[in-house]
Predict the 3D structure of the following.
Amino acid sequence: MNLFAWLFPDASQPVDPETEAAIGCLLQTIDPRLKALSGISKRLAPVVRAALDFCERAIEAMPGPLDASLSHWREAPELRALFTRNDEVQRIFSHQEVVQDYVDSHPGASCFYALLGAVFEERKNFGDIMENGVARHDVAITSLNFKNHRLFLPRTRQTTFEYDLRWALFRQLALEMLGRLSAMKEEQNHRREEIAFLRAQLAYSGQQGLSRLLADEGAPESGATSNSDKLAHQLLASQTELRTAHPPLQSLENTLEWIAETLTAPEALLRTQTLDYHIDNANQVIPAGQEGLDLHLCRFNVTAPTPRSGVLLRIVYPAGELLPRRRMAADLERLYP
């Protein structure tokens, strides 16, 4: 994009309402003051539109919607890997406060769609396996472990759920950008403070005052000079690093340019990874020729507001299979009297 196209965007191309709303969400998250800049919708529309398309592709890469009901959960290898029994699905889903609140507010709903997330890890160890009827000992084994299951965005309609999920992913992109921008500004401010301090030290080193008259006899005169050279070298290095490490972020225009450039690669902000395994009933990875399950997972890595990594998949679940709150409360009283 050349300079004139950036400063004076073409007003003949209208921005669709969804892209306009996404731009507003992005700026509100990162810095609401950016809304005061002129022509901002035209300047950000192409990259924001591309980011929304990226979020749609990310949803398509997720498994699902998978039927997690008591009678069908075993039909999906992903659900069989995440849960050992159907009553575990029921118990975990029923303990999700966000789901209980949503079902209570939609009493006529027969089912709900939701995003299921879990922390995922590969565990490497050694054990015994059977291969072609022969026992092998001390063999390297990879097992898959899932924990901290959570449900998000319960909705009664699939279209509504996937629409809201796309916006949730876009807001995560905005949070990722805010986190990086804040870290960059903090680093640059720290570097500027360091430069100011080095300048003060350098000025002080050339003005020793009465301290030179009170120095010990025979003290080397070259000490101040060598110290000044060292400070000057450190100052130059810090100035160079500040100038070259990151783009300048001293003005709103600088920030807007950084946003537009960074959003051209949304996959670098919200990193996804497709994982395919062939596993047995114990979630151990086995050779492709053996009898087992073909597992397809989509792992997401986020950093804002805190670093997290885990698998995400879409599920549909009957609202009538949720355990009532009173039963769960009774179970807690029984377990923790």
Notes: The CA atoms of residues 326 and 332 lie 10 Å apart. Residues 158-205 form the longest helix (48 residues). The beta strands are 66-67, 111-131, 134-155, 271-279, 293-302, 308-318.
